[in-house]
Amino acid sequence: MQRHFDNRTHRLRHGTMLRTAATVCFGVWLNVQTVAAADAARDFHIPAQSLNNALMAFAADSGLEVVFNADGIRGLNAKSLEGRMTPEQALDRLLQGSGYGYRYINDHTVTLEKRSVPINSAPGASTLPPMTVTGNAEYDSTDPYNPDYNRPNATTATKTDTPIMETPANIQIIPRAVLNDQQVVRLEKAFDNVSGVYTLTRDSHNQSGAMIRGFLNNEFYRNGTRVSASWLTDGFRETANLERVEVLKGVSSILYGRVEPGGMVNVVTKQPLSTPYYSLQQQFGSFDFYRTMADATGAINDDKSLLYRLNFAYEDAGSFRDFVNNDRVFFAPVLRWNIGDKTQATLELEYKHGSDTFDQGLPAIGTRPAAVPRNRNLAGPQGLIQESDSFWAGLNWSHAFNDRWSVSHKFNALIADFPLSPGIAVAGPANGCNLSTCNMNRRIRTSNWSGEQYYTSLDLTGKVDTGPLEHTLLFGWDYYNSTASSGLAKVATAQAVDLFNPIFTETSVGLLNNPNTTEIFSIDENWYGFYVQDQVKLPFNIQLLAGFRYDDAEVATKDVFTARNSPTDTTIGNQRADAVKPRFGVVWQPLHELSFYGNYVENFGLANTFNKDQNNKALPPQTAEQWEVGMKMQLFNDRLTASLAWFDLTKHNIATPHPDPDLANRGISINTGEVRNQGLELDMSGEVYPGLNVIGSYALTDSEITRDNSGNKGNRFFNVPKHGGSFWATYELQSGDMRGLKFGAGMIARGQREGNNANKFQLPGFATFNLMTAYSWYLNKSKITTQLNIDNVLDKHYYASSQNSASNGIFPGAPLTFLGSVKIEF
């Protein structure tokens, strides 16, 4: 990319920075009002912060444009600036001790220069000659004050820092600015901003899950490393330490191992900064919601080789659902050691404790969810309480051998314990339910889950030229081990209640002394993989991507179920499988603002863990393949990106009951199930006008069960609407006495969804509207922000999701909800 700068003005808000990998220099043009620089004194209130951010604030206050080398001032700080002074006096103070001075290039523009050249020249004394900058424009995503909705680069799709315009895959990013503006406390709320990604509420609203391109994914990655298996979940993915969320659409197993083919979610966490930054935020809202968060980062020693970051969150919250309460504590320290210019090591820890009420939702009656109040919780006041304690530790290091070859290694471990205290669970409706009468069976149960997980990966990245072709090579290896077990689960019958008029009476947990059933369960999964990838730059702005992965995986399960002293051992022998799967992609970028891409990729999917054949052996693992084509655009001087994609994704080897009824009743399955999802996806995010940010999405998904032995052939897959979309926009005043005032509004729309794969009942379509307002101002050295978000403004009664069951697991959406916040940063 080449860009020519002369007298044009590139407008950026406070907190954004345009970086380029330039061989000459990096240019940032700052201007909120293009006016002549006046000699008259004015009031300045700029807190101590990084010199980069201070210069942005100065440009906004003074009306001057400032041109400077962004990389040259990286790591430099400015002292606070308070008082009445001329712009020249203010700039002198900001630059004091930095080694930089300034000179005018015209009446309203100054440029920073090293002290070795003449400074403070008279206005108009010289002009900056035209400048050619070569590189890829990107904003600094690590700046805590960055209000930008757009991110031009991502690592999830290729494991290399590749511009999204040059990536032959659909990768969407939800940056911290969006998370802040929408006050995203639950990760699934962030998914509303991405096309074709739909929340699946599971296990009492205390587990994050998503349907991506029509397939359920409960497994998340953290900075490119696997976090936990679905049976080892430790509750919600905490958002307090998230920098951004990257969603890779489609098959991703080539680089990351066994994962559902619809796509993957990679959460990118906040990392230590050399410039000190501290924040404290208090949130409070409807249904007794209280949440406190703190963030601190900076250098430990003088040479800034040791950096730290610490994030903390505490939450005490009720719910619009009866008898539901949540209590959580989160603590995440990070320590980075910059051993040298080419070597770094980072140690990360996370501790999370949760105490969450287990809420199982509502049943369906007929073809619709039961017509009862959305707050109704049929477990009553003795509902199950899910306790959880998890400790996660990660160590990663990287070393650059030179400017072309580097190596990186990551390792993490998770130890989790999540006992389920004795309480009431809802088993589903009894026979004879209708629209006016329905008794709900209930039971009392307990269990004690625990597990461990270990993951490690080693990547070697290098650049090689073969004649006119430029190659970016990736060689990688990873290993994953996960074990989980329940020491003993007990279930006993409890008193049923009327769905339409529940009366709750106390149930004795002593019933568990003579349980109806007990169960001992364990699962052990191991797999390792080796992968190779080559990104090749060809003439005429064409780029190719090709790669493959070899996987070797083994899963062992044991499930001993006892019904009134009649044990049934459903132990399945070790399932071992290996496979080689390819990936191909191409990108053509005829213009800087436009690119076209296509890809074909195959998936080595999840194990059919609990399904066995007539010989009591596990069924072969699931597989998938995907075709995809699309286009991407960069608009408004690269401040807004948009993408349009068409995909065709088919998942094979889904376990279905054996066609012989006698064998099916014995739990025997065969691998004949198949689901095909195809459709269009449209996404956009960024700035369309100074201060006006937008993020929006739309998806058309045609979902069909193409092979099945259960009578579901031809049906839609559950919880996947044919049409779904969202739009969110905020505008922040850029000048005047009310600068810092922000307004926002948005909507989320979903078409009708099937409640289960049998398509026996449906969740009606809906649209909800959300609002926000915020105001930020400076008090001495601190920035204070007050904010109010109002979700579901029209108090729409809707259903968020279904768990593929008519018995229960239909979760109503939240009613009109207020969430306020006060945040201080310094």
Keywords for this entry:
53 strands; Phage tail protein beta-alpha-beta fold; Ferric Hydroxamate Uptake Protein, Chain A, domain 1; 6 helices; globular; 22-stranded antiparallel beta barrel; mainly beta; 5% helix; Maltoporin, Chain A; disordered N terminus
Q: Can you describe this structure in just a few lines?
A:
This protein is mainly beta and 826 residues long.
Write out the CATH superfamily name of the largest domain: TonB-dependent receptor, beta-barrel domain
Report the structural category: mainly beta
* CATH third-level topology of the largest domain: Maltoporin, Chain A
Compute the number of strand runs: 53
Description:
The protein has six helices and 53 strands. A hairpin with a 5-residue loop joins strand 39 (608-612) and strand 40. Mean pLDDT is 85; it is low at 1-39 and 116-139. By secondary structure, the chain is mostly beta strands. It has three domains: 2-135, Phage tail protein beta-alpha-beta fold (3-Layer(bab) Sandwich), CATH 3.55.50.30; 153-267, TonB-dependent receptor, plug domain (Ferric Hydroxamate Uptake Protein, Chain A, domain 1, Beta Complex); 268-450 and 457-825, Beta Barrel (Maltoporin, Chain A), CATH 2.40.170.20. The strands form 13 sheets. It has a 22-stranded antiparallel barrel. A five-stranded mixed sheet has the order 15-21-22-19-20. The radius of gyration is 28 Å and the shape is globular. Helix 1 runs antiparallel to helix 2.
